[in-house]
Every structure is written in C-alpha cells, then in structure tokens.
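Technical appendix A lists one of the benchmark inputs used to test multi-chain prediction within the project. The record comprises two sequence entries:
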Amino acid sequence: MTDQRLFEGADWDFPTLQRVHDACEEIAESELGLNVYPNQIEVITAEQMLDAYCSVGMPLFYKHWSFGKHFAYQQASYRKGLMGLAYEIVINSSPCISYLMEENTATMQTLVIAHAAFGHNHFFKNNYLFKQWTDADGILDYLDFAKSYVAQCEERHGRLAVEQTLDAAHALMSHGINRYPGKKLPDLRVEEKRAAQRRQHEESMFNDLWRTVPTGPAKSVATLTADRRRALLGLPQENLLYFLEKTAPRLHPWQREVLRIVRHIAQYFYPQSQTKVMNEGTATYVHYRIMNRLHKQGRLSDGNFLEFLSSHTNVVFQPDFDSKYFSGFNPYALGFAMMQDIERIVTNPEDEDREWFPDIAGTGDTMGVLRDVWANYRDESFISQFLSPRLMRHFRMFHLHDDPAETAGIKVEAIHDERGYRRVRRALSRSYDVGFIDANIEVVDVDLAGDRHLMLRHTVLNGAQLNDADAKRVLQHLADLWTYNVSLVEQDATGKVLKEYVANPRGLAAVA
Amino acid sequence: MVAIHIVDRRLNPGSKSLENRQRFLRRAKALVQQAVKKSSHERDIKDVLEGGEVSIPLDGMDEPRFRREGGTRDMVLPGNKKFIEGDWLQRSGGAGGRPGGAGEGDSEDAFRFVLSREEFVDLFLDDLELPDLAKRKLAEVESEGIRRAGYSTAGSPANISVSRTVSRALARRVAMRRPKQEDITALEEELSACSDEARRVELLAELEILKAKAKRIPFIDPIDIRYRRFEPTPKPIAQAVMFCLMDVSGSMTEHMKDLAKRFYTLLYIFLKRRYRHVEIVFIRHTDRAEEVDEDTFFHGPASGGTLVSSALQEMHEIVRSRFRPADWNIYAAQASDGDNSTSDSELTGQLLTEKILPACQFFAYLEVGQDAGLTFEMPDSSIWSLYERLRLAGAPLSMRKVCERSEIFPVFHDLFQRRVRQEKAP
C-alpha cells in the first residue's frame, strides 16, 4: 500500500504518464493477471486525432479520396461542435500503440491508459479471433509496405488507374474476408517480402522470346467436367476479392497486389467487428477495476476519482429504446454490465444463477473465469452463453419480430420473463452474428468455355434483399475488375429466383 | 516489467489527411463547383472570398457496398415498460422504436463540408481566364530592377566592400613580406638599449631597410579595393489597375448600382488572383466626371445630365498622370443604364478608340436594367448602339446586358470563359 498520489489536479506531464502507466501495470499484472503486448503511448493533438479517424484509425495508410471525404465531413461536424473526439485510439499491434489526446486531464489520461493500454491490449493479445486472424507484429510494417506500394503503382501506372482499382476493391471489401481459418497463420512480414520477391523474379525472368514460341493445339475443354472445373477454381467462393485476385483473367499483376492489400486489411479488421461488445466490455471492466484500486490505495484523490466516475457513467449509459438518444445497444454498457454480472455470479451467486451457470457460479475465481471468457468467445457466443436473466431484467429487454407481410404490425415475440429469457437471449446473440449481418454472396460458376461470364448468387435470408442502387454499383465495379459480364441472382432458401442483376464491364480498369 | 515508450507526437506534421482531402476535391470538382456557384448566388458577393460551407449531392461520390434491406427483422431492445409477450405494435408511430437499420447512410445523402477561402475562390474562378488581347503587353510586362552581382574594381565609395578589401590587402602584405610593426618596434628598442657601436650600425642599417620596405609596401593599396557591384535586371511587374466607371445620374437606380457593384467585385477578386498588386480607381460621372472613393462612388448623391465622354476623358487623364501603360495592366469596366446625350456619341467613340482602348488590357461595358426586367427585352440604348458599332468595326470591347443579380455571375463567366482557340484550327 502506498499513500502517494500519482498527481494532483488536472495537469500532467510525461513523468506523470510514466508513473500512471507503472501504477496501472502493477495492478494489471498482480491483481488482474493480464498478459499484454509492450505499450507505446503517443500523445497527439486534436487535429492529429481527426487525421487518425479518417484513415480507419491507422497511423499510416495509403492515399485515397474516400478518406479525404470522411475527413472533410468529420472536420465540418467537429468544427460545428456536433461531435466530440474520442479520448483515445488503440491499435492492435505489437507494441500496442495508444493515442492519447493532449487535451485530456490527468484523470482522463489515467483512465485511458488503463482502458486502452491494458484492457484492449490484453484482449488483442489473448482473444482467439485476433490470434487467428491478425498479425500484431507485422501490421505496421505491412501498412507501410501497402502505402509505398500504392504510391509506387500511382507513379508507374497513373493515379486514375490505381484509384479505379481501389474504388472497386473498397466496394467489395466486406466480401474480401476468409471466414474459415486456413492452415497458415497470417504473417504480414512474409507477405511484404513475397511481393518484392515476386516482382524481382518477374523482372529477372522476363524473356521476350517466350512470346514467339508456338503453342501446341488447344487441349480439348470438354474433358473438364463442370464439377472438376469448379473444384479447380475453388468454387463456390465467398471471398470475392480473393477469387478476383487469383482468377480474374485480365488483371495486371499490380492490380492483383492491390486487391490483396485491401483484402488483408479487411481481414485485419474482421475480428474487431465481431467483438465490439466484448472488446469494450473488457476494456471498461479493466479500467473500472484499476481506477478503483488506485483510489483505494490513495494514489487517486477523491476529486479525481469523482471526475473519473462521471465520465465512466457517461460511457456506460444505455438509453431506452424510446429515448431520442437511442441508437441500438451501447457496446460499452452491455459489455461492462455483462463482465460485472459474471463477477457477481462467480463470487456471489443466487439460486437462479446456480441453475443457469452451474460451471462458474460460486467458484470464486473471478479473474480466472473472465480471462477464459476474454480468450475464447466472440460477441455472438459470449451473449448466448453468459447473458443472465438478471441482466435481461435489468435492461428490461424485449424481442420484436417485424414481418412486412403482417398487417397487424410488429409483434412482441418475447420479453424478460421466465418464458422469454432464452428466446430474447438467442435473438440478441444472433443480431451480433456476422453470418446474419452480412449478405451471403458467393461466386458459383464461370462460363469458361463460352463468354467468361461470372455468376454470383445471393442466398436471401429472411427475405432481406440487396439495396438495388448499391448492388448495381458494386456489381459494376466487380465487372470492371473481371472485365467480362457479371451476373448476380438472388435466391431464397427454396431456390426460387427473386431478382437478377447483370453488369457489363466499362473496360477501363484493366486496359488502363 | 514490460517496456514502455511514451512518444510525444504533437510536433509531428499534422494534416496528414490534406492530400486525401485534395484528392476528394479533385474527384468531386464538378459537383463542388456547382455548389460553389450556387452558394455564391445566395451570399453577398463581398463574402465570396470568405470560403465556407458547401453541400454536394452524394451521387458519384458514394462508396457502394452490398447492403441488405427489407425482409423480416428481429430486434432486441432495452427499456420495456409495458409490453408483454404477444402484443402487437403499430408500425407507424413511435411505439415500435426505431428500426435497427436507422442511421445507415440516410443522413449522408447531401454531403456538407467546409471549404477554405483559397479552395473556394479557386473553384469559383477555376474555368475563367484573362482575355489575352492580341498578346500585346500582357501580364508579363517587365520593368528594370537592381540586384547584387559580385564585386568590381571600380565604383562609388559608398559601395566599398570593407571585408573584401581588407582581406585582399592582408593577402598582399603577407605575400610581399611587408615588415610587421612589432618587428620594427623590437629593433628600435634593441637599438636604444645597445651600447656596442658596431652592433648599432648594423641594427640601424637593418632598421632602415625595414622602414623603407614598409613604406614601399602600403598597408592598403588602391589595387586591394573592391566595390560591391549591382546589375540592372528585368523584373516582371505584377500590378494592375482597375477602372470602375459608372453613370450616377438620376436615372441609375439603387438596383442598377448594386448590379454594377457585384460585377466590379467579381472583377476585383479575379484580378487579385492574378496580380500581386491591384489598384482600383473609381470614376463617377453625370455630365462631368470626378474620381471619388468607393463609398461616394456607390452611395454619394449626384445629379445632372449624362456625358460619357467626360468619364473617359477623366480616365485618360489619370492613366497619363499615374498609370503608365508600360508599367501597369489596365482593366476598365463601365456600367451604365445606357443613356447618353446624342451629341456626345462622336466624342465618346473617338476617345474610346484612340485613347482608352489602346492603353487597356480589357474594357467591358455592362448595361444594367431595371429590376425584374428581361434582358432580351432591353431596347438598344444609345451607348449600346454606339459600342456595338465600334465593336463591329473591330474595337476590342466586351459588352453585356444584365437585369438581375443572378445574371451577374453567368455574364462574368461568359466574358472570361476560357476560349476554345479557333484560330489554331486550319
């Protein structure tokens, strides 16, 4: 127990940050047993924070007009005072970089260090999705490579051609993700070397004579059965960017590399979109524990602690559905509440909890259980496993079912009562399942023998079809990359075709 | 203990997004330009230079994604107060809460953002250019300037370069082995202390030689002297003068003056962008002309007949006394409701073709009409017919009619539009 204050008042300097970090670290390691990447804390200005916002939070990124558009938009709303800036941004990398705003008070810096540098950091390092899909050691180098590669392409092939390729790739970004892990773990450093080597190899092996060597008579195509052909192409394939990168007939090598870069970045963010509730819940729980401990140790004055409590309460505020502030569940609120609820179940369970959570109720090892949860679940499985009846009552959750065909209106399917707990929980968990959020679109076939027509299928779920205007634009981009016709059919579960789109290439991207 | 780095990034260059922003503006150029023009109609032209918020439609600037919509939806919401299982909620109305997809994209269909002053003016005037009339003496007119050009052996004493001179003298003295003053003093001391006669003679002789040598080799010789040299160089002048001529006789209404003022403002902004230094001369006239300040020009009361030639005469006088056409790019814009006394036509025409137009880079005549009038219904006034005649005879005159505020920009745009160079076609 030390009775020394970390700081007084609101002012801080760099030794203060160091002291704060050390104090947080002590608690994080000894009391919470966290296992984190080395920390790198960077102090930035509001303007730099705006910059970071606009390149998806990354410290370096390739140049593209769409980031400028977000920048212009956000700058306007920030200047008008419509929007406050985040207190911090944290990057899943090793070392784990946290950006702190210089305007923050000393209390806020402490909160942010506990939240980001320990909470998020631990989650990044230990959660299975991040382990499986991201390479924290390599990401910064890879982004650097991506930035300079794109810049190089612009020099060699012209800004317009690169911009068109990137536009198309961005449009397909949400469908450039591998959902099932392969045998290899991602290694972005190797990725970067591979690109350089391949380019070098191509340059050294170039021999114009090959062009003049006569080729034999074309092999008969008929011997390739449709099934065999699809298997060779890896069809059906839901990763559209991957499919284009590997098989689009007329893309230049640099275009394939650009698609690959966009695909890798989409993949890097894939775990984050699946763990919003858990990630924020973990970080909020960690900062709450650390700040409380610091206060108990007397290192945080009562005044500073009250300042912390006030901003903490703002962060975990959950407006009701009929409030004008409501915009869905607040991941901070839900996540934090669930973490605290698990703590309660582990240490001080009621009969209901013993019945619902026999494995963890009353075991007493809060941190052990939480660390296991943080490592092995994502939002969807976390909620379906750990949302307790007590919490459903606390939030007064209810489940609505909206069927457009039903004229009577929207039906209340279930509420927070004995009959509804499991249904409410299942429905909420499902709303966090990426499998239900993203449209299920696959490449089903290519007419190789004929006009190289690319065929896609959208398997319609719950009657939710694609937005017409957007789908046409995205398909246009897809056709530009494929350089032959592309069609998309929307089918429901019974195989009935609901709608069909066809797009013809504009013949710009590949020829450029 | 894990290693920690604390880095202060605040001094790193900010505005990393600047380039992305420029790319965005370049891509959205057509749309932004439209928006800029629209917003410049709305606001006072004086404020055009201030930049500000514009809003563009998202078409063409959107980033499409596959999005699903419609279908059956399931939502779990917090804050149940009175529902029980099996209740039905009306679709329209607040009871159902907001649908889950709210806030997706809809709020962005008109995209608002802020342009800086430079960006605004650049876009505003982007496709305009100064008319280069027969390439006479355009913006690149040159004048003499002076700049340093090394050293010379001759020059005025005021230009002596002391450091250069002294260092050359030192080099010369060392090279010629000029005896140092200390050596001479040392010999003299030795001499005065010496009692041996033979040695004294020897020392005296040595002293003589040294003194003679020091006298022969001067401390500073005229050949050491260097002067800073200056050279005249041609300097492009970037200065322009803009003459605003206006009829202020009773027939000009406030509305007409306002139109003229807007045109002058545009011209001023445009010239300001091209020239470092722009002066404005206001000449108002009734049946006699006078140079006035801006406030009097637009708001001062005046009455009398109308003699356009008086204004042209005044302008001619001012050009002759203050703005040598060789040094200044001269632009003139005349605004009038078209009245002129018939007897004045001949003099006006003569002044214009012989004195004014040869000195001017550009001369525009703006005929302003009544509020809510129709431009094409304006009858040809006496000035209009006169100028029309001159123009057809080959005089480099630009003339337009304007009735409403909203026409000012199109007319201005029309006058300075980048011409397709037809003369280059065979």
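Residues 254-274 of chain B form the longest helix (21 residues). The longest strand of chain B covers residues 142-152. Comparable benchmark entries are summarised in Table A2.
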